[in-house]
Amino acid sequence: MKIVSIANLKGGVAKTTITHNLAGVLSEQGKRVLLVDMDYQSSLTALFEGDEARFENTNIARVLFDHMPLSDAIQPTNLKGVAILAADIDLALLDSRFANDLNAHFLLAELLEGQKNNFDHVLIDCPPNLLLGTRMALVASQGYLVPVAADRFSLRAAMHVQDVVANIRKRANPKLELLGILLSRVATRRKVTEDYIELFKKQFGSQLLNTQIKETIRFQEAATAGEPITTYLPNHEASDIFRSLAQEIRL
Ligand code: ADP
Ligand code: MG
């Protein structure tokens, strides 16, 4: 079972979109996938629940705060082979709930250990911060992916993520590996974007993935339909880009 986190302290860099669409690629490959929504904003969860509060009583907050068995909280989705451990707004309390537990960052790793025969892949969608939720995810993971927008704030944010990871590697998870820094939401034919892409190349060298996700309204349309691009528009260029991404990071 390969566990991968999609992390950045910045919001709006397509972490959730990338998690959802990579699940789409793995689903069409016939893989068994568990999605974990670690973000109290529950965006990934919302993509799967439509208008109903489907996951009100089956989510990671119930597992971490009320000792619900993980296997009861994991729920099937409309995507073939893909299950979800949903998020809940209560996750906003995660850091304060575990303020006195110095080993809390190991909790998700321990929980997922019990699922290792049930899934081929686990994809963890992190909150837009580097607090306990993201640390739990990174401690549980073998690899992590850092989506970035081609702008100044993203450059700084990606460097902060690297600092936190260095710490986690030293103390809790020496095997944690960077799968790559991924330019997401790339608008074509804009000088300032191209300048930033050059800057990212200089800063991150081969860590910057060759695959880039282009800006297209199709992602929002697919999300509105509650589908990844790979089922919504399987022949669209954006679907092929996600298939290439999965290949490049050897998912
Ligand atoms: P994050 O999880 O990092 O906060 P999201 O995945 O929620 O980011 O994306 C933020 C918004 O941008 C969403 O409305 C999403 O549909 C949109 N979006 C993400 N990627 C793209 C893209 N490549 N092109 C156009 N819109 C995108
Ligand atoms: Mg998100």
Question: How many β-strand stretches?
Answer: 8
CATH names the topology as Rossmann fold
CATH superfamily: P-loop containing nucleotide triphosphate hydrolases
* C-alpha geometry: globular
* Largest sheet geometry: 8 strands, mixed
Order of helices and strands: EHEHHHEEHHEHEHEHEHHH
Tell me the number of helical segments per DSSP (H or I, 4 or more residues long): 12
According to CATH, what is the class?
A: Alpha Beta
Measured as a percent range, the helix fraction is: 40-55%
Beta fraction: 15-25%
Descriptive report:
The termini are close together. The chain has one domain: P-loop containing nucleotide triphosphate hydrolases (Rossmann fold), CATH 3.40.50. It has helices at 15-28, 43-49, 60-66, 70-73, 94-97, 107-113, 132-140, 152-171, 191-204, 218-224, 229-232, 237-248; strands at residues 2-6, 33-37, 75-76, 82-85, 121-125, 143-148, 177-186, 208-214. The protein has twelve helices and eight strands. Strand 6 (143-148), helix 8 (152-171) and strand 7 form a beta-alpha-beta unit. It has an eight-stranded mixed beta sheet, with helices on both faces. The chain is α/β, with parallel strands linked by helices and 251 residues long. The chain binds adenosine-5'-diphosphate (ADP) and magnesium ion. Residues 11-17, 43, 128, 184-185, 213, 215-216, 219-220, 223 line the site of adenosine-5'-diphosphate.
